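@channel sequence for tomorrow's demo:
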Amino acid sequence: MFTGIVKDVGAVESAARQGSGVRLKVRYTSAAEFGDLAIDESVSIGGACQTAVAVGPGWFEVDTVSETLKKTTLGSFRPGTPVNLERAVRPMDRLGGHFVLGHVDGVGRVTRIEEVGGSRMISVAFDSRFDQWIVSAGSIAIDGVSLTVASVEPGQFTVAIIPYTFANTTITGLGNGSEVNLEFDILGKYVARQKSVSSPAESRITESWLSGQGFA
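structure tokens (generated this afternoon):
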């Protein structure tokens, strides 16, 4: 599990095909954050949860399976591609963003970027079958970055990006038409699932139920 607070912007060093998958070698810049990364640890690469299979000074490798390649932008990574990096959250960490699992739901496409008083408003189009999972003022992870939804309409949402986030994540390199990994808030998925299997009178979504799911 992650928080969506990016700790480093690394870069892909190599992307080697292995059967139906790809082995990615990623370079990081922050030894303070990633210097003790170990084999079998989870790391978020552009919002996708991956497992370190090899590590070395300033780098680590992951094996990306075909299912991940289908659902994310990782299959388009080439040497030099910048990537947002975050290690798995520890129980004692501050939860600065929201619960991000690293399980990408699909790929969205940037449709508009507007600068507003130093900040950016970025609109992203996505598969409208996910409409039920997103609400205005709710959370969304874009390439692993936890953001707040400013507005939403069928098949599209807009987020506001503060200057710090814009300057310190791969969002700075986005343009119209850029593809991004999207993970919708797990709480929205729970609610949508509950509504699909229960009538209003049968709903079990209560304060105690949410607390039991980790949303205390």
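heads up for whoever presents: The chain is about 15% helix and 40% strand.
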